[in-house]
Amino acid sequence: MSVKDKDRGWKKIKKNVLHKTNSVSIGIRGQGVGKSSLASIAYYHEKGGKRVGWKNGCPPKRSFIASTIDKNLMKYQLALDKVASRILSGLVSKKTGLHGLGFLLVKGIKSTIRSGITPPLAESTKKQKARIGKSKNTPLIYRGRLINSIIHWLSL
Length: 156
Hints:
Strand order of the largest sheet: 1-2
Structural class: mainly alpha
Number of domains: 1
Number of strands: 2
Shape: elongated
Low-confidence stretches: none
Strand content: 5-15%
Number of helices: 7
Radius of gyration: 21 Å
Mean pLDDT: 85
Largest sheet: 2 strands, antiparallel
Helix content: 40-55%
């Protein structure tokens, strides 16, 4: 008696998954504000620290990327496991699965910003926002440029 192994698509799925390095990245895109790029503004708020040109020398640390990932790590790990399983079973393409993860991460980061990040705004910033008609004093939301510049992209 002989056993014959008939491939019913596993080799194609395996080749598709392992063919290239695949990743989803999160970042900031868009025009700058004055002489600063949105990416550098995001960096200084994420990390805190001194920067020439800022009043008082530095913005306080208001992490919105790392803090979101740290807070939701298990949720994101479960989502990654689910997407990997769906890709391997052929239910979704790599592109579709990774886009789903990217959208989930971006949604979480924006939600962190909208919920308010400590420390609260300085009184001088609240007054500045009031002068331009902004009534909400949520840190990291001034005109919406930063929050609207948070995107994901794929490397396939």
